[in-house]
Amino acid sequence: SDLRQLQSRKKREQRKERVTNDDNSTTERYQWDQLRSQVNDDILRLRKKFQDLSKSAMLQEAELSTQLSQFCERLTMDDLDQEPGLNQIKLTVKDKFIGQIRGHLKALWKKQLRQELTELQSDIAMVVHKTENQAHEMTNESFTLPQESIDENYIWSQLKQQLTVSIRYRGEMPKRGFMKRLSDGRRAIMGISMMAMVIGGIFKTVWGVDFRSMIMLVAPLIFLGAVFYSYVIWPREDTERLQRELDRIQDGFANEIKRILMEVQREKVSKVSDLLDQQKKSMIKALDNSARDINSRSESTKSHNRAQAQSRVTQIDRQIRDLQTVARDVDGLS
Questions:
Q1: In the beta sheet, which residues pair with residue 93?
Q2: For the segment 179-236, what is each residue's pLDDT rounded down to a tens digit?
Q3: Interatomic CA distance for residues 217 and 196, integer angstroms
Q4: Which residues, 6 or more positions from 300, have their beta carbon under 8 angstroms from its beta carbon?
Q5: Element (H, E) at 96
Q6: Residue 62 CA neighbour count, 13 Å, CB half
Q7: Which of 84, 207, 224, 103 is nearest to 165 (CA)?
Q8: d(Cα 116, Cα 58) in Å, to the nearest integer?
Q9: How far apart are CA 69 and CA 92, in angstroms?
Q10: Residue 92: what are its φ and ψ, rounded to 5°?
Q11: β-sheet with 171-174: strand ranges across
Q12: Is 174 in contact with 166 (CB distance < 8 Å)?
């Protein structure tokens, strides 16, 4: 009976010795791989979210584009430098207005950048916290993963250098003086005279009226009327022409600002992508280090348990041999 009990104990200990926890090791490796894949997916999701957020800020109805458009619409004739020439007045945008729009652009862009980076920092913290909790549930150990700090000032210092507005606008307005007014009056006389020559013969033949002579009698009045009319029509023409020039400038500013924002956005997304890549590498490296440490301790525990089981089996073998010896001695005496 004692021999059978010892043999049963030996079998149990041998089974314990053969258990190497290979299934548990495989499961743990799979869980660590899943955790790494999840970190990679979470960082990709943050990158995609940041790109979409940046694109939405560039839409025409977004606050950034709307405020810049409204600022450009404030451009007036007072914001243009006028350089008189021989026959034309050359128009250029004053450096003061360009400086104002540059400052406005930087202020709006910095505000937008701060909002985006603040949200991104919060999203990174959430990913880190979620990964720490999952690692804790998997290993029953506390985890503290690294979190990259977003240096807003550094990113802004790299981007603001590109926020330089330069518009190649060279407009022109006609330069008209009193001689031009007299020229308008002369053209009016010439036009009336030509008309009188064409139809004057018909009037004289049909009605016997010298139409051309009648027209020439009132020519001085027509001349003066054309000159005075220039004081009415020229301001209207100048206003319309000026408005067309202002529209050209505003369109030029809009295109220039759009080009600048697109370039700065690409640079911003690139820098944030680099930061997210560094965050992913730091988290995965920390997880790898933790996995190796936990696996090393687990293997040490397993080795210790196997050694203890082997020691117990050896002890049981000794006890079995002693019982067998006693049994043979008893059989020999009988």
A1: 80
A2: 776 777 777 777 777 766 667 666 666 666 566 666 666 677 777 777 777 777 777 8
A3: 12
A4: none
A5: helix 95-139
A6: 14
A7: 103
A8: 13
A9: 20
A10: -140, 155
A11: 80-84, 88-93, 171-174
A12: no
Locate 202 and state its tokens: 């018909």
**What pLDDT does 41 receive?**
92
The 10 Å Cβ neighbour count of residue 10 is 18
Q: Which residue, among 287, 181, 288, 275, has the nearest Cα to 228 in the 3D structure?
A: 181
Residue 333's pLDDT is what?
A: 61
Quote the pLDDT of residue 42.
Answer: 92
pLDDT at residue 321, rounded to an integer: 72
* Three-class secondary structure of residue 169 per DSSP: coil
Rounded Cα distance between 164 and 96, Å, is 14
Question: Which portions of the chain are predicted below pLDDT 50?
Answer: 20-21, 23
What residues are paired with 320 via a beta bridge? none
CA distance 163 to 264: 8
What amino acid occupies position 236? R
Query: In the structure encoding, which two tokens stand for residue 319, read together?
Result: 């006890």
> What are the tokens at 96?
């003061």
The secondary structure of residue 140, as a DSSP letter, is S
Q: What are phi and psi of 67, to 5 degrees?
A: -70, -35
Our measurement of the distance from residue 260's CA atom to the centroid of its chain's CA atoms, rounded to an integer in Å, reads 13
223 and 185 Cβ atoms separated by less than 8 Å: yes
Strands annotated E in 156-281? 171-174
How many angstroms separate the CA atoms of 14 and 189, rounded? 127
Q: Which residue has the tokens 């009698």?
A: 217
CA 68, distance to chain mean position in Å, is 17
pLDDT at site 122? 92
* 303-299-315 Cα angle (round to 5): 10
Provide the pLDDT for residue 174: 66
Which residue, among 133, 130, 157, has the nearest Cα to 143 in the 3D structure? 133
